[in-house]
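Minutes, structural biology subgroup

Action item carried over from last meeting: produce the structure token record for Bacteriorhodopsin (Natrinema longum). EB confirmed the sequence was re-checked against the source entry. Recorded below for completeness.
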Amino acid sequence: MQSVHDLGFRAQRAVLQNGAADRELFEYVFGGDNTLLALSFVLNIALAGITILAIAYLGRHLTDPRSKAIATALMLISIVSISSYTGLTSGLTLGVVEMPPGHPAAGATTAGQDGVLTMWGRYLTWTFSTPFILIALGMIAGSDWTKILTACAFTITMCVTGLAAALTTSSLVLRWWWFVLSTIFFLVIVSIILVDWTAEASATGTADLFRTLKLLTVVGWFGYPILWALGVEGFAVLDVTVTSWGYSILDVITKYVVTFVAMLYIVDEPDAITGGADYGTSMPGLDPGDD
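Output recorded by EB:
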């Protein structure tokens, strides 16, 4: 099994050395007949910006430290997204990857380069944003930090192996093996949400809210591996633009919609959400504001 360092080196070579320059990819997306593809990036930048401002406004009167912590996690989802989608828009996190023999898109060309357009920056979005989604969900469910951090570790591994699947050019079999590994890690996360956190939310008193959030999140998350399999990186049934819009719509549901649903509940600071003055302190009775 490759080390993380080896995987990173291969990713750098596959994307930065074999791919077109940032300027060429930017012109390919924004200067040609790819307006719809470009809009799938710009839409998320706009929505992420609106969501950040909305959280700041809605949370301006929060006083409970636990409510503030959940709101911060929700805001960081959009902060990561606006940064990552800016990378896609600028061409910085786009690449052209030549598919291995036997792949339906083998022999394709993009922007004058051999290969297909790979939006590897999306994996950066998911790697850094999904842990914050899980932190918010876990805290709302009332889970302990061991379970929350375990879910975060699995989601990072899921995204990294998904990136490996997208960038593997040596073997079609290995591309799909990385995809299978990523899917296994994904199912572990789903089981934590549907089984452990659902039970904990019932005990905590946030069952109604958590039911809505888990449906939006889990149903939306199942769309990602399906899109990968049907998109240009998998069976190439869907073209790059359709795949990108699919990912963007799923991001809207699992990030911004989930954020607003959760935030509208948190701003009222119900007893099931609040942690009290001692929350987050190492000494009972110490107000965090006194630090």
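Discussion: The radius of gyration is 20 Å.
Next step: EB to file the record with the rest of the batch.
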